[in-house]
Amino acid sequence: MSIRPILIHPDPRLKKACAPVEGVSDDLRKLAEDMLETMYDAPGIGLAAPQVGVLQRLIVMDCVKEEGADPQPMVLFNPKVQWTSEALNTYEEGCLSIPEQYAEVERPAEVTVTWLDMHGAACEAKFDKLWATCVQHEIDHLDGKLFIDYLKPLKRQLITRKMVKLKRERAREKA
Ligand SMILES: [Zn+2]
């Protein structure tokens, strides 16, 4: 396994709709394992393939936050929201592609999602609480959508300007 660099917004690859995977190959399993390692290292609770520059429909997540609790890594190929509750929930969201910026986003409180697992088997589950918000946030990435797209334009522009500055500083450090 290896840690992959995470793309920082703004980046055209974070705005693209990703292609479905056609069968779960060894290469894709390796990518999923790298993404889990990258996510835990960051640390974060979710990561989508476009965030590591791969424009395919794959997300990983683990929303277990309680200290001492067993990790619960999940790998979802071609995840698709099949049902959303009318009830909404608000969480303060962040994103590994938008470091250190947080904002409240309102989303359906419960969702049913279908996907293919690491063995290519069809799965379906209902998610609630933080898991529901996380899975929706990650699936949005596969459609080129970021959590800041839910914010008012002024707030979104402010965050984007901060990220442009951050990227410039990081590029300078590397040079
Ligand atoms: Zn994100």
UniProtKB/TrEMBL annotation:
Q: What are the UniProt keywords, alphabetically?
A: Hydrolase, Iron, Metal-binding, Protein biosynthesis
Reaction(s) catalysed (UniProt annotation):
N-terminal N-formyl-L-methionyl-[peptide] + H2O = N-terminal L-methionyl-[peptide] + formate
Give the protein's cofactors. Answer: Fe(2+)
Binding note for cofactor: Binds 1 Fe(2+) ion.
Question: Which top EC class is named for this enzyme in its record?
Answer: hydrolase
**MF-aspect GO terms:** metal ion binding; peptide deformylase activity
**UniProt keyword annotation of GTP-binding present:** no
Q: Which InterPro entries does the UniProt record give?
A: Peptide_deformylase, Peptide_deformylase_sf
Please list the residues that bind Fe cation. C95, H137, H141
Q: Which Pfam families match?
A: Pep_deformylase (PF01327)
Q: What positions constitute the catalytic site?
A: E138
- According to its UniProt record, the EC number is 3.5.1.88
Protein family membership: Belongs to the polypeptide deformylase family.
Q: What does this protein do?
A: Removes the formyl group from the N-terminal Met of newly synthesized proteins. Requires at least a dipeptide for an efficient rate of reaction. N-terminal L-methionine is a prerequisite for activity but the enzyme has broad specificity at other positions.
Give the protein's recorded name. Peptide deformylase
